[in-house]
Amino acid sequence: MSLHRQLQQRAAEGRPIRVGLIGAGKFGSMYLSQVPRTPGVHLVGIADLSPDAARANLARVGWEAQRTQAASLDVAVKDGSTHVGEDWRALVSHPAIDVVVECTGHPIAAVDHCLEAFAHGKHVVNVTVEADAFCGPLLARRAAQAGVVYSLAYGDQPAMICDLVDWARTCGFPVVAAGRGHKWLPHFCESTPETVWGYYGLTPEQAARGGLNPKMFNSFLDGSKPSIESTAVSNATGLSVPSNGLLYPPASVEDIPFVTRPRAEGGVLERKGMVEVISSLEADGRVIPYDIRMGVWVTVEGETDYIRHCFEEYNAHTDPSGRYFTLYKRWHLIGLEVGQSVASVALRREPTGVATGWNADVVATAKRDLAPGELLDGEGGYTVWGKLLPATTSMAQGGLPLGLAHGIRVARPVKKGQSLSWDDVVMDTTTRAYALRKELEAGFVPGGGLG
Description:
There is one protein chain. The chain is globular. The strands form five sheets. Strands 3-2-1-4-5-6 form a six-stranded parallel sheet, sandwiched between helices. 36% of the residues lie in helices and 18% in strands. Helix 2 links the parallel strand 1 and strand 2 (41-47). By secondary structure, the protein is α/β, with parallel strands linked by helices. The protein has helices at 3-12, 26-34, 51-60, 73-79, 88-93, 107-119, 129-146, 157-170, 196-200, 204-209, 214-221, 224-237, 256-259, 305-313, 339-348, 391-397, 432-442; strands spanning 17-22, 41-47, 83-85, 99-102, 123-126, 150-152, 175-182, 274-279, 296-301, 324-329, 360-366, 375-377, 384-390, 406-410, 425-426, 444-445, 449-450.
């Protein structure tokens, strides 16, 4: 039975999936806009550091004020309304909640939220992929040990890429490459929240209208988020990553099967079976027509003459050899699509992407020369950006994961372009996120496994 039919059935039986949302910012608001239009789902509660801001966002997306006036979670469960408050612990521990959607964008807090949700028997849809990037394999293990499902969020590109990879492999195609698109030029890695809108292509007025966070959007532009998302995909699918960071080859949709081939065959890949990100800009800054900037793609191989003839007979656009074919979705709708994950984990107990090993990592890299005593401000900020590396390389370097490079001080000089190590910073070792990361490193087995 389709997910939608199952949701309709749950609605008819008066047994909705009961959801708790942590974080009602831009991504969370997009999901909130779809909840009233989705049968069989009851958003019981929202936990946000600013309940007033959460209510303002609810009004922005069209919720009626009376729907969010529940005095407690218990009241919300009884009358079908939604409670808005600050207490995330009460939300994840409430016995009626089935699924927690972690949507804060704060990786250290997200680890706490996920672990507590698992401890109380809740499935988790983790929108904060930054947390998944530095300890996702252990979050997945903790969920399995608790008998619940941990999942990446559909609508975000990693889960959609995982879906395309799964489609390809289920159909019997070897995956040559998979990834997303991005607007990229090399100097974007130096961008700060002050420069982001000009590079991104929005006016400050448009950004303000949409309630867009410049630091968060800068994390996309400066390459941090593409690296984070590529890490999540690699760790979920087993695809390998470039040895020294993403290459961002420029290509139109038509040219993706041309460039996502091994170098020996005219492409850019070090080998078959890799993640990569396609740029929507030529090296000189010219915009590429019919780009994949907001989309996802997978390139597969036709291994036999018969399969390649089928590509030709059905007018599948391939590389010149006819061997490599790319399937793509040109757009993703971000938080508007999270309902797919909520339904999947609750009704089928299936994640829409989950880490199965540790193949890749995102290492904090200096945007400029950094001096001892300076405070790192994490992804999208003024000090560091995230570089995608194989986990073996990161381990050998003692790489500082980008998700933990926030609110800590530099211990010794770091040159612009240098990837930071644990020894370069004064680390806060008291967080559960730090402990989980160190446990991940201690159990690392070269080749993507965990001890």
